[in-house]
C-alpha cells in the first residue's frame, strides 16, 4: 500500500491527494522526528531543514548489565516517550498544529523498542490528522550531515562516501542521492562499536566502553601493543579476530602480572583504538580510490571517537578531498537525524501508511 491512508470506520481511506494539496499550501514544513530503535528515546523538531529542538533521554538502566536489555529498553521508552516529545515541542517553541508530518524510525533496531516509537507516531499522526513518514535508521545516520543548526551550514556534495560505524553496524556507504544509497562494504561479524565495548568489558570498564577507551587512549602509547588485523577481500570489515587477539594478550600477560590491566590500561586502550582505526581506514581509503568521490562523511556512535575523527580528517586532507565530521551530538542515536531524513522524504511526498509494521533487520 503506497500513499497516505486514514483509518475511518474500520477502513483505510486513501488520503494522499488531500495531503499533497494541503502541504503545497503551507508556508514552511515542520517535521517532528521520533527515534526509539535502541536505548535512546529521542524527539526533535526541524523546520525547513533547520533544527529547532533535539531532546534525548538515554537509559542508564542498562549499565548494570553491561549491555542493552531489550525488555528494559522497551519499558523505558514507554515511560520516556510522552515527556520527551512534549519537551521537544516546547523547546522548539511551536504549537502542535504547526507540525506538517511525523517522521519515525521504522527500523532496523530492537523490535520492542521500535514498537513504542512507531505506535506513538501513528497515534499522534491520527490525532493531528497529518502524514506519517517512515525512516530507515541507517539512512538517517547518513543524512544527519544535512541537519542545519545554522542557516549557512553546509553539507556534503553527492555522490559521497559515508563510513557508518556504530554498536551494530560498520559499513562503507556510497551515497548517490538523498534516497539512493549503496553499501560497498560491511562487517562480516562484529561491528566496530562491539569491538570497543567487548574489549572494554574484559578490562573491567563500564558499558558502553567506547567513550572510556577514547578517554584513556589519549594518555597511552598506541604502539606499545600490537593486535591482529583481518585479511579479508574487498571492502568488507571483520573485528572478531581483533577481539580474540586482545583477549589472548590480556590472558597471557595476566599470568605474569595480576595487575597487568590496571598497570597498562592507557597503553592497552591506545593500542586497541589505533588497531580499530587502522582497520577502518584501510578499507575507507580503498573505497575512496575506487569511487573517486570528493567528499567523505562519518556517522554512528563510533564516529564520536577522537582518534577516528582525527584519522579521517588526515586521510582526506592527504588525499585532497573533503571530510565531513558531524557534531558529537549527531553521532549517537538522535531524532534530529530522523526528522531530517523524514523532511526530505516528505518533500518527495513519500508518506507511510498506518499499517506498516516496524522491522528489526533491514539494510539501506
Ligand atoms: O550509534 P550508536 O549510538 O548506537 C548503536 O549502534 O547502538 O553507537 C553506540 C556505539 C557503542 O558501541 C559505543 O561504545 C560507541 O558507539 N561509542 C564510541 C564513542 N562514543 C560512542 N566508541 C568509541 N569512541 C567513542 N568516543
Describe this structure in words.
The structure is a single chain. The chain has 364 residues and is α/β, with parallel strands linked by helices. Helix content is 42%, strand content 20%. It is built from ten helices and twelve strands. It has a five-stranded mixed beta sheet, sandwiched between helices. A five-stranded mixed beta sheet has the order 10-9-8-11-12, with helices on both faces. A hairpin with a 4-residue loop joins β3 and β4. α4 packs across α10. The longest helix has 32 residues. The chain is globular, with a radius of gyration of 21 Å. The two termini are 20 Å apart. The relative contact order is 0.18. It binds 5'-O-[(R)-(carboxyoxy)(hydroxy)phosphoryl]adenosine.
